[in-house]
Design goal:
46% of the residues lie in helices and 18% in strands. The protein is of the alpha/beta class. Strands 3-6-2-7-8 form a 5-stranded parallel sheet, sandwiched between helices.
Length: 171
């Protein structure tokens, strides 16, 4: 599939490959990439006030071009309504968990998709969040797909699915 969207939402659970894919597509299409975690968290993994996050999120929505990646379900409806393309990364839980542990072990620098002062960490709450993510997220995607039928949705479950993605650079 050759396609050249100007607003792309990449959504999925932790460890699904959102950041890696966003960077790759951003370079390929010359689109700015925004990581929701940078807007959601303050130093030390302290949540920002909800109204501040929402204000920043709405500011992003008003830009002409973007790739926004993140797992935030609370604002997915807003992103879905403004995007040309939603890429829903949905690999198996064990695959996500392995990637999370691999990232934690191998990445000792400040993650580029996280705000300063938010190093990679693994907690029981984080693992429970990952494990519980799939069902409500898939249900939400199905609802949004019906609500916004003109928005293109691509579901990715495997590397084979991912390798089928092809984009044309924007003129």
């Amino acid at each position: 599939m050759n396609y050249s969207p100007s607003k792309i939402t990449i959504f999925g659970p932790p460890g699904s490959g959102k950041t890696t894919l966003a960077k790759k597509i951003g370079q390929q299409l010359k689109l700015p990439v925004f990581h929701l975690d940078k807007f959601l968290w303050n130093k030390g993994w302290v949540l920002r006030p909800k109204q501040d996050f929402l204000a920043d999120h709405l500011m992003l929505m008003n830009l002409d071009t973007w790739i926004i990646e993140g797992a935030s379900r609370a604002t997915l409806d807003i992103r879905y309504s403004k995007t040309d393309l939603v890429i829903y990364l949905n690999p198996s839980r064990p695959v996500c968990l392995i990637r999370i542990f691999k990232r934690f072990i191998l990445n000792r620098t400040q993650p580029s998709d996280k705000p300063d002062g938010c190093p990679e960490k693994i907690s029981w709450e984080f693992i429970k969040y990952l494990w519980a993510f799939k069902k409500p997220a898939s249900q939400q995607i199905d609802i949004l797909r019906a609500k916004y039928p003109d928005t293109k949705l691509i579901k990715i479950r495997s590397k084979r699915d991912l390798n089928k993605l092809k984009f044309k650079a924007l003129a």
